Amino acid sequence: MPQNLLKDFTTRSEKTLEFLKGTLQGIRTGRAHPALVEDIKVDYFGTPTPIKNMGSVSVPEARQILINPWDKTAMKAIEKAIQASPLGINPQNDGETIRLNLPELTQERRMDLNKIVNKTAEEARIAIRNVRRDVIESLKKMEKDSEISEDELKKLQKETQDLTDEFIKKVDEIFADKEKEIMEK
Q1: 90-99: long-range contacts at Cβ-Cβ below 8 A with a sequence spacing of 24 or more?
Q2: What would the pLDDT profile of 4-57 be if each residue is shown by its tens digit?
Q3: Do 150 and 92 fall into the same domain?
Q4: Which of 79, 76, 74 is closest to 89 using CA atoms?
């Protein structure tokens, strides 16, 4: 039973890391990446639909994203959704495709993005600590109910803390990589 708690801790923490990576992919750096626009919701016949479900998204150049909608009638709606997004980019529509040219980031914008990334990483750290708290509370309850001994409780608490430290370190590495990517010119 206690081992199931540690497995659950690992699973939940790994999901937190995956969520963090996905979230950070959507934060614009100096380079174009399909994840910047894939999840922008377009009002497609009254249904909010992600761009990735409406056409192909590619990166032909380092600072350009190309969206090739399967339904050409949806181009205006895609354009409108991109303009309403926090990207701050004006799409260029040539009737067949939509091009997004990413401008060079200013130092001020890099600092703002860095703050957003830091906040996102801190939220991931908090989520992992909350999972740790849940596991330790469950372990204490098991000890109180005489399911495990006091020695086992101490050993499992240490294992939980070691896992927590490991996952927090991974969050810090992901944050450092993204911070480096943002500050690169």
Answers
A1: 91/67, 96/68, 96/72, 97/66, 97/67, 97/68, 97/69, 98/66, 98/67, 98/69, 99/64, 99/65, 99/66, 99/67
A2: 888 989 999 999 999 988 888 777 666 777 877 887 888 888 888 888 888 898
A3: no
A4: 79
Q: Hey, what are 16's tokens? A: 């937190």
Task: Could you list the beta-strand ranges (E) of 45-165.
Answer: 47-50, 55-61, 64-69, 92-93, 98-101
Whether this prediction's pTM lies above 0.70 is answered by: no
Q: The tokens of 164 are what?
A: 């927590």
User: What backbone torsions phi and psi does residue 55 show, to the nearest 5 degrees?
Assistant: 175, 180
Q: Domain range for residue 77?
A: 35-101
CA atoms of 96 and 45, how far apart (whole Å): 20
In terms of domains, do 148 and 82 share one?
A: no
Tens of pLDDT, residues 63-120: 888 999 988 888 888 888 888 887 778 888 888 889 988 877 788 878 888 888 899 9
Last residue of a domain, one of 65, 86, 101: 101
